Amino acid sequence: MKKLTKKKKHDLLMGYIFVSPWLIGFIAFIIFPLVTSLYLSFTRYDILTSPRWIGFQNWIRMFTQDPRFWSATKATFKYVLFEVPLRLIFAFIVALIFSMKESKILNLYRAIYYIPSLIGGSVAIAVVWRQIWGYDGIINAFLSIFGIHGINWLGDTRTAIWTLILLAVWQFGSPMLIFLAALKQVPTELYEAATIDGASFWKRLTSITLPMITPVILFNLINQMIHGFMAFTQSYIITQGGPLDSTLFYAVYMYRKAFNDFEMGYASALAWFMLALVGLFTIIIFKTSNRWVYYEAEEGV
Amino acid sequence: MRRNFRLLMILLVLVCFLLAISPAQQQVTLRIIWWGSQDRHNRTLKVIDLFQKKYPNIKIVAEYTGWSEYYTKLTTMAAGGNLPDIMQQDHAYLRGWVEKGFLLPLDDLVAQGVINLKDVAKSIVDSGKLKGKLYAINLGNNSQAFAIDPEIFRKAGVPLPPTLWTWEDFKRIARIIHRKLGIYGAAENLGDHNVFRVWTIENGGYLFSDDGKSLGYEDDNVYANFYRMLLELQDEGVIPSRDVEIARGSVSPEQRFICLGKSAMQFTWSNQLTAMSKALKGKQLRLYMLPTLKGKVGNFLKPSMFFAINAKTKYPKEAATFIDFFINDIEAAKILMAERGVPISKRVQLALKPLLSPVEKEIFNFISIVEKYGAPTPAPDPERWQEIYNNVYTPLYDQIMYKKITPEEAAKKFREQVIQILKR
């Protein structure tokens, strides 16, 4: 190791002092809780009495004795599996339409289409959604015009989760904006060349547009997947996890374990399992990405 | 020397000055927390005002929330060592809070006369006792009830049932009303654990054993029979099907089917009649004890809620003074009325009698009927009851009503899973 000069030492110190607000925040609010929760996942802790070390009991219980844990995992997987692709496809289609023409009125529409994403995660929207799909809600009132009566959207195990997926798909704003930016980056000369060669719209879409924006698709996919696994409000407010736990999202179950049953240790174990799961899926997607993601720069000339 | 003398004089004056003002500064600030509806918040805040006028040296800072987040908040406060001096406590949580040492034993304060319980029946005082010590003061009595709508009964040509009616009567009446008027005979959450608790008493046991370490009934048929009855009524359309109830979510007393004219009977706590009557705009509902089984009554008086004192409070005496004021002062009682259940003090009850509205009169009468016929109040729930309710009782109830599982299978699972949790 080379010894640092006095000046360099001073600079280093000053540097750390300048980033210290962030560093302190990072250690106090991220590292510390993270490590604590890992420790707590091996304890029994009800907040009121001090944590008691029980080894792997929480983990064993999770996998062998807790049917609701499996319900929650199943419901969350189902949600992510449908919600993420649907939202991305929808966002992509809307972005494609917006990217084709440039006009002032389209800018306004862009803003309007983003609104659901701004308000979509809110409790207010969830409450409204509940009213819309409720037994005496607007949807059923509308259907009764056509003689269809009394579909119990929120009370039926087959339909309840779809109302939540639909709400999530409606909030396509942020992936849409990212897609839009990516679409604008695709060099126009590629399209011009293709058009001269007589390529149809469909051909241009599949051979130029999609390959060119695959890095952004990858980004959106991972981002949305992580969000999907963390979904909370919809389930908590609209269906309260019911009926028969068919919409019991993992995050809701974790919250209930922690703050209704006061099992902080068990909830911490649940949290770490979710972290591992999301990490695993992210790695899988990254590993497969070099097969389908196209980076222009790597090609060379 | 002279200089020193002057300094001494100044110091002396200062000390005198301080001594003179310090008694006036002995202002005590107490914190109090409760859960409830807006109606309860308003009433309680008014009583606090009244108290502060009477005891100008005590200032009370109030915190209040709804029920659903109450214990989350209180537990977090306890973890932070930041508990209020006076806390509203629920019967189901009392055992846990006492065992963890958060609550102050009140026996000394009662012996000193700071809290006066002379006009309170012993059984009511005892409901706040655990292991021989008094930890919490009951604020009012409640009981399980069926609210029934006499107008609908008249329309269907059904006479009102006798006080001691049976489940057979109940089923018969509900069916007639459903057949004649096309509405629900009885509605909303008939499988509530509180109905089931009454059912277990009528079967000669209780939900939990006295020590809170196992179930309080031997025969799994007790459980299965209860749900067989519910399934039967659900299939006939006499009660709402479970998926309709779940889709409606948790409804407040004012939104229940009976308040919308869509049902003739409704399970409720007696003090909720006030809220339900408000929604019905003057239409008077009647309260009945839950139906009996083979001549056995399962209804019991339940302490609606308690006040307890933080074990680490700096001012136990002042906190106790407030509780005493809350349960014994006539002016305070006139503001509170029966919102927290029927007041525990016989003297207060007497003073309120001429002031009661028809609805409150119905509640008072009902409680005196339960006092006469009812079963003794069971021991507080085991500490893990909430977990059992959330993860075992409710999921199984739903699964039975959705026909994913038979009542017999559920009865077995219920026993297994409850014992698993209680043993952990």
Automatic annotation (TrEMBL), chain A:
Record-linked InterPro entries: ABC_transporter_permease, MetI-like, MetI-like_sf
UniProt KW keywords: Cell membrane, Membrane, Transmembrane, Transmembrane helix, Transport
Annotated compartments: Cell membrane
Biological process according to GO: transmembrane transport
CDD domains in alphabetical order: TM_PBP2 (cd06261)
Record's bilayer topology term: Multi-pass membrane protein
TM region(s), chain numbering: 12-35, 79-99, 111-132, 138-154, 161-181, 201-223, 235-253, 265-286
Superkingdom of origin: Bacteria
Domain (ABC transmembrane type-1) ranges: 73-285
Gene Ontology cellular component list: plasma membrane
Main location: membrane
Family of the protein in this entry: Belongs to the binding-protein-dependent transport system permease family.
Name by which UniProt lists this protein: Sugar ABC transporter permease
Natural source organism: Dictyoglomus thermophilum
TrEMBL record, chain B:
Entry-linked InterPro entries: Bact_solute-bd_prot1 (IPR050490), SBP (IPR006059)
Signal sequence residues: 1-26
Compartments where found: Periplasm
One cellular component (GO) term of this entry: periplasmic space
SUPFAM superfamilies per the UniProt record, alphabetical: Periplasmic binding protein-like II
Keywords from the UniProt entry: Signal
Domain of life the protein comes from: Bacteria
Major location category of this protein: periplasm
UniProt family annotation: Belongs to the bacterial solute-binding protein 1 family.
Protein name according to UniProt: Sugar ABC transporter substrate-binding protein
Organism field: Dictyoglomus thermophilum
